[in-house]
Structures are given as structure tokens and as C-alpha cells.
Protein: glucan endo-1,3-beta-D-glucosidase
Amino acid sequence: MDAPLRSTTSLLSFFLLFFLGLNMFKQVESLGINYGQVANNLPPPEKVLQLLHALKITKARIYDTNPQVLTTFANTNIELIVTVENQMLATLCDQQQAVQWVTSHIRPYFPATNITGIAVGNEIFTDENMSLMTYLVPAMVSIHAALVKTGLSQYIQVSSPNSLAVLANSYPPSAGSFRSDLSEIMQQFLQFLATTKSPFWINAYPYFAYKDNPNKISLDYVLFNSNEGMIDPYTKLHYDNMLYAQVDAAIFAIARMGFNGLEVKISETGWPSKGDTNEIGATLQNAAIYNRNILRRQLLNEGTPLRPTVRLDIYLFALFNEDMKPGPTSERNYGLFQPDGTMAYNVGLLSTTSSNTEPASASISLASSAPPKVKRVGYQSLINWMMMMFVYFWWLCKC
Structure:
């Protein structure tokens, strides 16, 4: 085959994979991404929106109510969760202040900007500022009442993401229970969620469990790779990954408090691509495998072993590496992308050229980048692959 023909064929192959990827990713309705902005080198929201569109991501979460982001995301298909910063909780316990906040931070942008949730604080129950706990539920009640008053409560849910540290027990999943010191406030919190039909959001990171105990925890188990898994001795349910076990532990803990029907969603999960010397497992390879395997599971619209027919919504952390985050090196290296729009690592993303001013146009193509241990693919994905191969060989024969 001569060089021009090779070039033409390669170009055709790229575009076939590109459009295959778009079609595959379009099916992942349960996947969102966290768009953190603790950095001084991120692209403007306009470029971020282009990247989300290219990736076919339709759900995002931000950690404030940045007017520039809310305005930019108007009249798009992005479902957006916004956040009340922790330091605002005390103020928003007051009903009038909450009405004013909703009137100035939410109402001007809705419905053009599809705000679907308000996260009231983040990991309040495990924050070092213990006084925040006393403000959380009153602030949530006030914000919800303000949404009712402004006619928005039927469109926007109010909740608050929790770290896994709210659990006293998480293994086995059926033993899941909340810390005893949180019993009273957790009862109030769960009652609010049940009354308003809002989800329990959890920030779940199997990476932390592995980092703290790598000699006893299987890396394959936390990365969703093929492994023996574990069987809960009481429910006899089989778990082949830690993330689903963590979610089911939270479900059991909620049920023990008398709120069995609450939906549990993952507001954050991810894996760092770089860490300090004592941050075992924080590597590019592990980060790519973890997020790639989550993407593959989301293509199947899976539920957990305890709720297999209930699709598990997951928000990956995070879209970008954030260079101004405090703490260990890992904190600044959870992003799928670098601030210039290039991929931090490949999770099955095909990317065109990028520059310092415009993020790469990209799409998902899991069929071409799946790790060999992950064998299950969706039926539609198989059909797409067969069609791609048919067209590809037809083109070769024609040439």
C-alpha cells in the first residue's frame, strides 16, 4: 500500500473510531464529572463547555455558584449541581438570607441553566470545624423552603455530599453503620432527605483504603479488575470491586436509621495519577485503569449487588488537575485533563490536537482501549464495533 493510501485509510479509521466513541459515550447517562476550579491556569468556561460537549458529558458539578460558569452553561444540555460553600452555612440558616441567596444565585440563571441540585456544603460531618454540623440541616431546610417560595423545589434537589468517614463500619457491606457520635444529626439529615425525596450523596474513594493498607487489600479489587472479590457472609452477595461495596455499606447504614428507601449516589470518586512517596498506588497506570473501568461499568447502567436494578449515578473527580489545591501531591493530580486541554492519561479518550487556549476535542472509545481483564461489553457497543470493522474492510477492498 502506498503512502497516500495508508494516510487516507488511517484517517478514515480515526474518524470511524471517533464517531463510534461518540455513540458509545452518549449511552452513559449515569456519568457526571466534577469541575473543580482551585487552580490559576484553567481554561475559561467557554472552552470547558466545548470539552464537555466533545466528551458527550451532560452532567457536571461545580463547587460554588460561579456566575461565569452558570451563564456559559445556559441553553446547553448540561445538568449542573452547584454548591453552597461551607462558610455560608451559618448565614443561610436564616430563612430571609436563604431566600436572598436563592434569588441572587439560582433564580436569575434558571431554567436557561439546567441546575438540578444544590450541594449544601461538602463533607460537613467530617470537617475540622465541628460547629458546621449544627448549621447543616437548618441551612438545608431554609434553602429548600426558599426554593419552594420561588417555585423551584420541583426542579432542584437539596443534599450534602459526605465522605465515607461518616461510617463507623463498612465491612462487610451488610455491617454498614454510621458513627455513634453522628446519630442525632444524621437522623435529622436523613429525615430531610426522605421528606424532600433527595439523594444521599457520598464521596467514595477506594484509593484511600488501598493506600492505607496495600498489603491486605487487593489492587485488582479496588481497580475493578478481574478478581475473586468477596462474599458478604450475611447477605451472600458477591462484590468484585470496593466501590460498590462502599455504596452498599452506606445503604445498609441508612436503613439502620430507618430510611431504607433513600437513593444513594456517588458525588465524587477518582484516582490520583501522581502522589508523594508515601502515597502508594498513586500512578498514571492505576488512575487510567480505575476510571476506564468505571466508564465501562457505566456503559452497562449497572447497579450495586444490593440494588442491581437501580442505576448508580457516579460523578468522576475530576475534570482537570488543580495546581492550587493544598495537601499532598495527589490532591493536585486527580484530573482526567491537564489545564491546557491535553489528556493527563488515556482512559479510552480519543483526542484531536489541542493548544494552550483550546481544550482538545475528544470522545470516548472504550472498545479500543479496554484492559484485557475486562471482558463485558454492551450489545450496542458490539454492533458498533462490527459496523466499524465492516466499513473499514470495505474501504480497504475498494482501494
